[in-house]
Specification:
Helices cover 49% and strands 14% of the residues. By secondary structure, it is of the alpha/beta class. The chain has five domains: 176 residues, no CATH class; 39 residues, no CATH class; 127 residues, Glutaredoxin, CATH 3.40.30.10; 52 residues; 252 residues, Alpha-Beta Barrel (TIM Barrel), CATH 3.20.20. Strand 8 and strand 9 form a beta hairpin. The radius of gyration is 50 Å and the shape is elongated. Bound molecules: 1,3-dihydroxyacetonephosphate. The site of 1,3-dihydroxyacetonephosphate has 14 residues, from strand 17. GO terms for molecular function: triose-phosphate isomerase activity. Pathway: Carbohydrate degradation; glycolysis; D-glyceraldehyde 3-phosphate from glycerone phosphate: step 1/1; Carbohydrate biosynthesis; gluconeogenesis.
Length: 692
């Protein structure tokens, strides 16, 4: 499933790059040659007999738009901007173009479809094949537009879109005003026209076959040269068809005739040694006369220096004369094929400078060389020399003005996005940790163990004071006071047990009966108490409470609905022998690990190292944390991590207001079981406030 997804992802993105680069290339070559695109559109309009109805301005606007739209769609696809819309438009585009090119391939009304302008020439069948591949690719893109990762974030997409539109519009307009920056035609700067017309030796010649129709005795038959019959047959007709195409030179239709058609001057123009100016206008009827003054100045300059000047056109005499009238042109006009002239230069009119039959300069009428009668001879001007590195410098300009800014933008955007992602990840990690902590927010408790202190009155007074204080200042933790049995019932009367829990310090290991001096768990519960401390080291030590006795006490306490604060902890010798873990584990196993998970949830563990109780020696926060974490880990082993995470583990042993904050800051220390410091309200409050 995953690998299928990856395969589709790779395929989609492969199609994305193929389609995007094809559209960018075909769009760009059209956009930088709007006149070329216009000529091609006019050819199409002629084929469908609509040329008379569509004005040149509309066709020109369509050419600029067509190239621009193709280019923008390609760039948008490359950057994966508005993926759904772009893939829909591309599919629509290809769904229209593919059948159109099938028609071209079948009917051949136009030899070159013009998909890639003049940059790449394909036969009509090749074009159709190319479109079938692109159509299949766009169908896949249409189906999976979101499998294309973005190169730029949504918030910055508008920069790419607007900059691309601006770039292609400016490129198109500049090409229209001057000339296309890249000239893919056979009359580009540096091309020798004569050479372009040559057919190399050994080049494939076109093959023709002639069929003869002859008649004898009223019967007609077809013959070829190989089986041509005798003279008894009478010749009726013959037809010649081309059976194989031969080599066609890049320039095959260049000829210059005088306007009366009496003389062909092609050779004399192309063989001329030195410079000659050629003014080109396919039709003077539609030519711009805005710069006629500069053209006339160049003509005068050519006369002064003896450079021939030819004006080539396919216009009628009437149009030529009209041009003469409005511009005062005195140069000579010659006739050349209209398509050839449109191919020579994309400007009407445009100017060519030939040297020894080689094109060394091409100018739009908007950008003519500033030559007049004062200018020096051509060899002494920049115009008379072949421009160097013109293509490389144009490519670097595109790099500098379009590709580089977009690359920088993409880089900046991706870096920004990456840092945002990192920040988000950190944030979600923090939230995750917080949630985790929240999840593990087991109850924090500060419990007092009064031990055998306080007479009834003092105990009641202390309990009242605590009750009042804690009712007023809500504590940030649970508070419990565990008192001698005799206090319980009295204190329970007034204690706000929502704020302070009440517990006993012990209970019997028997349910009831003849156990003089003992207090049962049921009796404790009946006072209103909810907790009982069991397993305290003082009871284990002074009253020989064994793990078995404690096990019974715990079971009875739980049975009577009391929660148990179960104490564990090692002696000094055991700590010094490094046996603390062993000891606490044995204590838990001996008395509480027999409980079910549900029962265990009513147990609060109090780790009280015996050597720290009432001695003023506290375990360091790290020591305490280490063993608390160990205790939690063995609970996790026994009952699972969730139960372990929910178990409150208190620390006891010389815990005071001064060391409580450091101890309570440890992740596995959930509060304290306080002896001496729980006997004075202020001391006890100091510890409770450590949670604030
Ligand atoms: O035993 C204790 C609590 O049960 C601890 O006593 P101290 O706080 O007096 O050291």
């Amino acid at each position: 499933m995953v690998s299928r997804k990856i395969t589709i992802g790779i395929l989609v993105n492969l199609c994305r790059f193929v389609v995007a680069l094809t559209f960018i290339f075909s769009g760009y070559v059209k956009a930088i040659d709007p006149l070329g695109t216009l000529y091609k559109l006019q050819d199409y309009l002629e084929v469908v007999h609509l040329s008379a109805y569509v004005s040149d301005y509309i066709t020109l606007a369509v050419s600029v738009l067509l190239g621009g739209i193709e280019f923008c769609l390609g760039v948008l696809l490359l950057f994966a901007i508005r993926r759904r819309l772009v893939t829909r438009l591309l599919l629509f585009f290809m769904a229209v173009m593919t059948p159109l090119t099938l028609w071209l391939a079948l009917d051949n009304p136009i030899e070159d479809c013009g998909c890639f302008g003049d940059a790449v020439k394909l036969t009509n069948w090749e074009t159709f094949g190319k479109n079938v591949v692109l159509l299949a690719a766009t169908v896949l893109l249409f189906m999976r537009p979101l499998a294309m990762p973005r190169f730029i974030s949504r918030s910055n997409q508008w920069i790419v879109v607007n900059y691309t539109m601006l770039f292609i519009l400016v490129s198109s307009s500049m090409s229209l005003y001057t000339l296309p920056p890249f000239d893919f035609r056979p009359y580009h700067i540096g091309a020798n026209i004569r050479k372009g017309m040559e057919i190399p030796e050994g080049a494939k010649q076109p093959q023709f076959e002639t069929t003869f129709i002859l008649e004898k005795d009223g019967q007609r038959r077809e013959f070829t040269l190989d089986d041509y019959p005798d003279s008894t047959w009478t010749f009726i007709d013959s037809k010649t068809v081309q059976t194989e195409a031969g080599y066609v030179p890049p320039i095959h239709d260049f000829s210059i005739q005088t306007t009366d058609g009496s003389e062909d001057i092609t050779d004399s123009v192309l063989n001329h040694k030195g410079y000659s100016f050629v003014l080109v206008s396919p039709h003077f009827e539609t030519a711009s006369d805005a710069n006629f003054g500069e053209i006339d100045a160049i003509y005068e300059y050519s006369l002064d220096h003896g450079y021939p000047f030819y004006a080539l056109t396919a216009s009628t005499d009437e149009a030529i004369n009209h041009w003469r009238d409005i511009t005062g042109a005195e140069y000579n006009f010659f006739l050349t094929d209209e398509t050839t002239l449109k191919t020579v230069i994309r400007s009407n009119p445009g100017l060519l400078l030939l040297k020894d039959g080689t094109v060394i300069g091409k100018w739009s009428h908007n950008d003519l060389p500033g030559l007049d009668y004062k200018s020096p001879r051509l060899e002494d001007t920049e115009y008379g020399r072949m421009p160097e590195h013109s293509v490389t410098s144009k490519i670097s300009q595109i790099l500098l003005w379009y590709i580089l800014p977009l690359m920088l933008l993409t880089f900046a955007d991706r870096t920004w996005k990456f840092s945002q992602w990192i920040r988000k990840k950190e944030h979600s990690n923090r939230i995750y940790k917080l949630l985790k902590r929240k999840k593990n927010m087991r109850k924090k408790i500060v419990a007092g163990n009064w031990k055998m202190n306080m007479n009834l009155q003092d105990g009641i007074a202390l309990a009242k004071e605590l009750n009042e204080t804690l009712t007023n200042e809500k504590p940030n933790c649970g508070v419990i006071i565990c008192t001698p049995f005799i206090h319980l019932a009295s204190i329970a009367q007034f204690l706000n047990q929502d704020v302070i829990g009440l517990g006993a310090e012990n209970c019997a290991d028997k349910e009831k009966g003849a156990y003089t001096g003992e207090v049962s768990a049921e009796m404790v519960k009946s006072t209103g108490a909810q907790y009982v401390i069991l397993g305290h080291s003082e009871r284990r030590g002074y009253y020989a409470e064994t793990p078995e006795i404690l096990k019974e006490k715990v079971l009875l306490a739980l049975k009577n609905g009391l929660k148990v604060i179960f104490c564990i902890g090692e002696s000094l010798e055991e700590r010094e022998a490094g046996k603390q873990n062993e000891v606490v584990k044995a204590e838990l196993e001996g008395s509480v690990f027999n409980l079910t998970e549900e029962e265990f949830k009513n147990i609060i563990i109090a780790y009280e190292p015996i050597w720290a109780i009432g001695t003023g020696k506290t375990a360091t926060a790290d020591q305490a944390e280490e063993i608390h974490a160990y205790i939690r880990s063995i609970i996790a082993e026994k009952y699972g991590q969730a139960v372990a995470d929910d178990t409150t583990i208190l620390y006891g042993g010389s815990c005071k207001a001064s060391n409580a904050p450091e101890l309570f800051a440890k992740p596995d220390i959930d509060g304290g079981l306080i002896g001496g410091a729980s006997l004075k309200a202020a001391d006890f409050m100091g510890i409770i406030n450590a949670w604030k």
